[in-house]
Specification:
The protein has about 210 residues and is mainly alpha-helical. It has helices at about 1-20, 30-35, 45-55, 55-70, 75-80, 85-95, 100-110, 115-135, 140-155, 165-180, 185-205. It is about 70% helix and about 0% strand. The two termini are about 25 Å apart.
């Protein structure tokens, strides 16, 4: 139990960064590490965090999909715990096809226990994914990232409103790629990039009880 607690404490720190980095390398060490862990003994909500912490984003996406579709997890619980946001973030980092993300949300909407507010948000997210599909796969551009960020800001001024999540996470993905590739070199633009990432991080963080 102590080993499990220690591992999850470490994972909390890993996830905060690894869920925001592009999946560019094959995590050999991570694969060997998880091969030694009995995942059946780990709660479903923690398995995806382990995958993200060890940079196995495709596995994280599949794990999140299984967990979200589990009838034991109510839509309200999933929403409050931030699982939908985590799913969008992991799917974008894993370069999951936009059509597959949209299809998953449509499958989820078919549940008979989805509240109206969440159903409307899923519809809006799918429309946003359709609108931004070209930006997700295009070469990153600073001005486009700024525009998407500004659009997200205009969607709602409420700090905890997740309606803008797709816009926020697409903008964040573009900004991180700009910084990683060294495309942005002007000091003021670099500062603006980190400012936008900070705001997005706060806006997409799980709600606190």
């Amino acid at each position: 139990e102590f080993a499990y607690y220690s591992l999850m404490h470490l994972v909390d720190h890993c996830v905060s960064c690894h869920s925001r980095l592009a999946a560019t390398s094959r995590p050999i060490f991570a694969e060997r590490l998880l091969a030694r862990i009995d995942l059946k003994e780990i709660p479903p909500e923690d398995i995806s965090q382990l995958y993200i912490a060890t940079r196995q984003f495709n596995a994280a996406v599949k794990s999140l999909e299984r967990h979200l579709l589990d009838k034991k997890l109510t839509p309200r619980e999933a929403d409050y715990s931030g699982l939908f946001i985590e799913y969008i973030r992991a799917a974008i980092v894993a370069s999951k096809p936009v059509d597959d993300i949209i299809e998953f949300f449509e499958i989820y909407r078919a549940r008979n226990d989805v509240p109206i507010f969440l159903d409307k948000r899923l519809v809006f997210w799918n429309k946003a994914l359709q609108q931004l599909r070209g930006e997700i796969s295009a070469q990153p551009k600073f001005q486009r990232a700024k525009a998407i960020f500004a659009n997200a800001h205009d969607l709602s001024r409420a700090p905890s409103n997740h309606l803008r999540a797709v816009h926020d996470l697409v903008a964040a993905s573009i900004i991180r790629e700009l910084l990683a590739l060294g495309v942005v070199t002007n000091d003021s633009e670099i500062a603006e990039c980190y400012y936008m990432l900070g705001i997005i991080s706060l806006r997409t963080a799980p709600r606190k009880a």
